[in-house]
Amino acid sequence: MTTPPRLSVRGLRVAFGGLTALDGVDFDVHDGETVALIGPNGAGKTTAFNAVCGLVKPRNGTVRIAGRPAPARPTGLLKAGVARTLQGLGLFEHLTVLENVLVPLTSLRDPDADAKARTALDDLGLTAHADRPAGTLPYPERKRTALARALATGPRLLLLDEPAGGLGPADIDALAETIERLDCAVLVVEHHVDFVMRVADRVVVLDFGRVIAAGAPEAVQGDPAVEAAYLGLEAAA
Ligand SMILES: Nc1ncnc2c1ncn2[C@@H]1O[C@H](COP(=O)(O)OP(=O)(O)OP(=O)(O)O)[C@@H](O)[C@H]1O
């Protein structure tokens, strides 16, 4: 029997009132693979991400994690080995960096919570900031705190919504190195084309709620439909 993909999305359809945001979207993410979901503004990337996280309820379609229906609640997702970072970061600004990273580990009642949180902080160069309230840190460090919080749980599937957004070149480079070191499955929604081309094993391109191309980054980059829909616009900007 073949192993099911870590994440499998089939026939995903999401509508907001009369607006169809996603219309029959299929994609998979396998263990050890980084898949980027790209597309122009309004293409449906965040909606797809939110449907995978259970934040948006699809009208049709399925989201499966390792062959099982994806849990909708945050703790259920964590137990299924899924961690995510959101565009808005969602940090508890008055809690320290360490306390923020401890939050999901505590909800999982992990007996090694403290050691895992400190290791994640160390891995992301945040140890010196461990006892500072998260809200007092500069944006790149707050963003790394959100990533540390996700990585501390040891996810099998990591979902990243615009991880490079708002970062400068040095921080984007460090982020790419961090992602390249991971051995879990990664789904990343991102606008930054160079970053996507660097970290993604496969790229899925959405336009008007449909998948218009999927494949290796170089193949997708040269696809005329993609150039017209997204990369062309981006290059002309
Ligand atoms: N909560 C909502 N209510 C109504 N319409 C929504 C909602 N969320 C998204 N949409 C609409 O659904 C479509 C897809 O939006 P979505 O945010 O998923 O696109 P995106 O590809 O992530 O865009 P961006 O790159 O700008 O973040 C857009 O037309 C958007 O206006």
TrEMBL record:
Q: Which organism is it from?
A: Glycomyces terrestris
Q: Which residues form the ABC transporter domain?
A: 7-233
Keywords linked to the UniProt accession: ATP-binding, Nucleotide-binding, Transport
Asked if the Swiss-Prot or TrEMBL record annotates the protein with the keyword Nucleotide-binding, the reply is: yes
Q: Which GO terms describe its cellular component?
A: plasma membrane
Membrane-spanning residues where?
A: none
Does the record carry Nucleotide-binding as a key word?
Answer: yes
GO MF terms listed in the record are: ATP binding; ATP hydrolysis activity; L-isoleucine transmembrane transporter activity; L-phenylalanine transmembrane transporter activity; L-valine transmembrane transporter activity
Q: What protein name is recorded for this chain? A: ABC transporter ATP-binding protein
Q: Which SUPFAM superfamilies match?
A: P-loop containing nucleoside triphosphate hydrolases
- Quote the Pfam families the UniProt record gives: ABC_tran
Q: Which GO terms describe its biological process?
A: D-alanine transmembrane transport; L-alanine transport; L-isoleucine import across plasma membrane; L-valine import across plasma membrane
